[in-house]
Amino acid sequence: MATAVSPLAPSTYPDMPAIEGVAIATAEAGIKYRNRTDVLLMRFDEGTSVAGVFTTSKCPSAPVDHCRLALKAGTARALVVNSGNANAFTGKKGVATCEATAKAMAEALGCQPEEVFLASTGVIGEPLDAGKITQQIPALIAGVSGALWREAANAIMTTDTYPKVATRTVQLGDAQVTLNGIAKGAGMIAPDMATMLSFLATDAKIAPAALQALLAEAVAPSFNSVTVDSDTSTSDTLLLFATGKAGHAEVSEAADPRLQPFREALNAMLLDLARQVARDGEGARKEIQVTVSGAVSDASAKRIALSIANSPLVKTAVAGEDANWGRVVMAVGKAGEPAERDRLAIFFGDVRVAVGGERDPAYSEAEASAEMKKDEIAIRVELGLGTGRWTVYSCDLTKDYVAINGDYRS
Amino acid sequence: MATAVSPLAPSTYPDMPAIEGVAIATAEAGIKYRNRTDVLLMRFDEGTSVAGVFTTSKCPSAPVDHCRLALKAGTARALVVNSGNANAFTGKKGVATCEATAKAMAEALGCQPEEVFLASTGVIGEPLDAGKITQQIPALIAGVSGALWREAANAIMTTDTYPKVATRTVQLGDAQVTLNGIAKGAGMIAPDMATMLSFLATDAKIAPAALQALLAEAVAPSFNSVTVDSDTSTSDTLLLFATGKAGHAEVSEAADPRLQPFREALNAMLLDLARQVARDGEGARKEIQVTVSGAVSDASAKRIALSIANSPLVKTAVAGEDANWGRVVMAVGKAGEPAERDRLAIFFGDVRVAVGGERDPAYSEAEASAEMKKDEIAIRVELGLGTGRWTVYSCDLTKDYVAINGDYRS
Question: What ipTM did this prediction achieve?
């Protein structure tokens, strides 16, 4: 279907600088889509460390299984991604496809298959022919360039309506380091370790264990706080590659104070990419940010925020620009977390609509309605019980979501 | 909005016999709707016992709080229900409305306010004027009749497109007893004790404790296994009244073997009403029955079945008549319950679409597609791990759900 670009797409894209030690190529393998790229190669120089987090699905895709194993060594030489087919629930054929792809790329690059990371996104349950990917290997390797980050983001899209890219440059020790990232999302987005696919690379020199610690810390308030439709994918994969080319002394501990600017940049970039995913949720017309404060713990605040952000009734109310705070009350109530009806306060943006267990005496329908006309809807619930706080990022539920998903496979 | 009657509405309605000891009246109080009834009175003769189950929401409505308290005595003389306003999240005003309504009805009937049960359904957060209801009391009492069950079901509807009624007659001891029930549902339906509103009455003579045990047992596989949109209401209320007029000796224990036909009728009737609620889910065009078998426990099977039935991607696939079993795999995987990808088998109706961790080798797209054209879609997942089994009842997710809920309050 011809889906228009999300009204929440960025108005401009950043120029994506090259990262020393990273070379990129894309190709048209014709796996499912026609007249667009659907395979991505990132080639990394020797000495690249890697960290990753994956879906918590009990039915993960074959590439997720492959990456989990490959990650144990902590070094990477290549990333191969395809769109159009998730290689999930494909049995032994799916495992064989991963093995054949990793082996062919390893032979072409002169590395171990365990240094080749794989990710696939698209339809579940269809066998994926490794040959479609491996026959592109010579052209991919011949075509690599450091400057193709935007093209990389394009090649991994499925029902995304715009490519998701981000970049940051910060000081690390005595060197400037750059951090680039791409992501894809759209539907089946309720990450429980990472979103469907996101890949980051930096020229920083950070040991695998420290890199993993940084990534795990950054993913909680960003990708793990995004939900489009509460449906956690079989394929969620977030990988961070560090080529070590920046010229500073290696950092081996996540607690190293030199990492602070890098850590802040990583956290900000993951949140940036995660919000881009929310803003390009299937059919999305408005971004929703749900903040729950005053909960008994951060974990409790997160569960209540997710209950609100995943509620079809809250999401359709936002789509209808209806300041229907009664549905927020419902979603707080169903979360099963400590909450006291008569201590609740609810805000849309800066407009307090409910307080002390009933409608705010100063409630103005006009003010609330004006808030609902905005592109970004901030819903805040103050529970008045403790200091727990969390923010979750989501989007509205529109007829377009139903249209997109009522006829996706066929 | 002018919503057409659900295509899943019953083709005929049963004749609802009178229940001795129950008198019914409805009225047009103009609470929200115009030109339709919106208040229901059921008057019970002295000696009526009552059982009830309610929402587990942490933000229950004022009438739910009232009923929980009133239930302690276990006897009932009246039930007063209004539609159009849920009297939920209405603070002290909401409590006062309940007190005023119960008091006025108790005075009119010569009973205690604690013998008057209350329920409200409709918009959340708007104050409900008790006067609108109490001024109808004289007309209601003057107009009671035993034969108005269908009218009772009409008066409690909100976005329901058809009234939900059911009746059974069974032997109990040396008497025939009759069991009548009504329900309303539509949206905000993911009961965790009962659906939004359902009321049953019988002329059986059963002590309150035994009645409560029977009801609690019957609600688990019926109303507590229904989900329209995963949104648990603030107002779920299921009440069962027993007038004791049938002429048999009182039954005081739920384990009494004489109760077996009554128990079976109660279970069947709750399932009947619960399925009627699912089939009239907002925007529903197809009923979905999800059965999970081979789980490690019944509770685990239920959680996986709910994960499937609540998945927007599964529900939109059913709406699109797409045999997209990959989304079923996804929903199994995200449930967080024990499941082994390579032991899963998935059926649509009698068509096995996946087995042993991949697409069924004998998979026929034509057979699967034919299955998806039906009104009732049976999805079955066999996990191959144990003997746990559960069935959940739901409906598809259509553009009409979004349309209905994008502009409900205003």
Answer: 0.77
String of DSSP letters for B359-372? E-TT--HHHHHHHH
CB contact under 8 A, A125 and B339: no
Structure tokens at A379: 């819903």
B194, pLDDT greater than 50: no
Q: Which candidate, B171, B247, B259, places its Cα nearest to that of B210?
A: B259
Both structure tokens of A199:
């890949």
State the fold for domain A22-279: L-amino peptidase D-ALA esterase/amidase (3.60.70)
Q: What is the Cα–Cα distance from B282 to B156, expressed in whole angstroms?
A: 16
Tokens found for residue A84: 């159009």
Q: What is the band of B225 on the pLDDT scale with cuts at 50, 70, 90?
A: confident
> Best mutation site among A32, A54, A59, A228 for testing chain B: the one with the most B CBs within 10 Å?
A59
More confident residue, A196 or A176: A176
- Identity (one letter) of the amino acid at A53? V
Name the nearest CA neighbour of B128 among B60, B62, B41.
B62
Tell me the one-letter amino acid at B55.
Answer: T
Which residues of chain B have a CB within 8 Å of the CB of A331?
231
Strand partners, B389: none
Q: Where are the domains of chain B?
A: 22-279, 287-406
**Cα gap B404→A397, rounded to integer Å:** 12
The C-alpha atoms of residue B278 and residue B284 are separated, in whole angstroms, by: 8
Question: Which residue ranges of B make up the annotated binding site?
Answer: 158, 184, 195, 282, 405, 410
Are A319 and B86 in contact (CB < 8 Å)? Answer: no
Among B48, B97, B134, B195, which one carries the catalytic annotation? B195
Q: How confident is the model over A272-317, as pLDDT tens digits?
A: 888 888 888 888 899 999 999 999 999 999 999 999 998 988 999 9
pLDDT at B410 over 50: no
Nearest Cα to Cα of residue B126 among B179, B84, B154: B84
Q: Do domains A22-279 and A287-406 have the same CATH topology?
A: no
Q: Would you call B237 a catalytic residue per the annotation?
A: no
Q: Tokens 């990262």: give the residue.
A: A19
Angle made by CA atoms A159, A395, A293, in degrees to the nearest 5:
145
| Cβ-defined contact of B324 to A408 (cutoff 8 Å) | yes
Q: Which residues lie below 8 Å from residue A342, measured CB to CB, with a gap of 6+?
A: A356, A357, B91
Q: B212 versus B190: which is more confidently predicted?
A: B212
CB contact under 8 Å between A406 and B319, yes or no, is yes
Contacts of B190 in chain A (CB under 8 A): 334
Return the CATH number of the domain spanning residue range A287-406: 3.10.20.340
Dist. CA B380–CA B389, nearest whole Å = 10
Kindly state the tokens that stand for A14: 């950043």
